[in-house]
Amino acid sequence: MTTVPERRRNTGRRDTDRDSAELRALLHDIGHAMAMVRMLVDAALSEPSAATARRKLDLARSQTGTLSTLLERAVQPSGGCEPVALRPVLAQLCAQADATGEARVVLVDGPSPTAEINSTVLWRILSNLLGNAVRAAGRGGTVTVTISDVAPIVIGIADDGPGFGAGEPGWASLGLSTVKTLSETFDVAVGFQRRTPTGTVARVVVPASARSARREGA
Q1: Which end of the chain has fewer CB atoms within 10 angstroms, the N or the C?
Q2: What is the CATH number of domain 6-217?
Q3: What letter would DSSP give residue 118?
Q4: CA of 195: how far to CAs of 108, 136, 142, 144, in Å?
Q5: What pTM was computed for the model?
Q6: What is the maximal distance between C-alpha atoms in the chain?
Q7: Cα–Cα distances in angstroms (integers) from residue 64 to residues 34, 96, 115, 125, 200, in the given order
Q8: Under a CB-based contact definition with an 8 Å cutoff, are residues 183 and 189 in contact?
Q9: In the chain, where are the structural domains located?
Q10: What is the DSSP letter of 4?
Q11: 28-54 pLDDT, tens digit each
């Protein structure tokens, strides 16, 4: 009988734990995407304005495309990168969050940069950060999203909530863990700072080419 060296067993266990954590994070994001579709449809059905209802259904249809991509990633993971225009991605996320959340979400006019990155990874990072900001801002609050620089690309997501770590328990748990893992894998820098007079600013720095460090190092 061949004995597997301790180092190899530990490596295999770490790989299994990492894969399990990645699957839990992906299922978390799939659940959020499904909830977003349901909320958009519910909002459209209760909307008296036909034009507004149609806009919300269009957002729901767009979200189903994202959901399909997430489900494909669960079956067949892919680390491929492609040119992604960031402003349209942010515009869609902001419109969805504004239509379904209690806070007002505003995308400020600015540059429209393109980055070479895995589009699903980018969506998951920004979606989780924006969702957390909306929950932190709460009813009557405001979330402001900006693109301030293009070399590298800097995205700001600012809420006027109580401040990082001072919101309702659990509001930032798995979502921020997912952000941390994905950002480290694709060389995207994510940081947080206090906002004056209240709230938090999430700062996302996206390089022009965000290749997967894990894939290149394999």
Answers
A1: N
A2: 3.30.565.10
A3: -
A4: 17, 13, 13, 12
A5: 0.70
A6: 73
A7: 8, 12, 23, 18, 30
A8: yes
A9: 6-217
A10: P
A11: 677 777 777 777 788 777 877 888 788
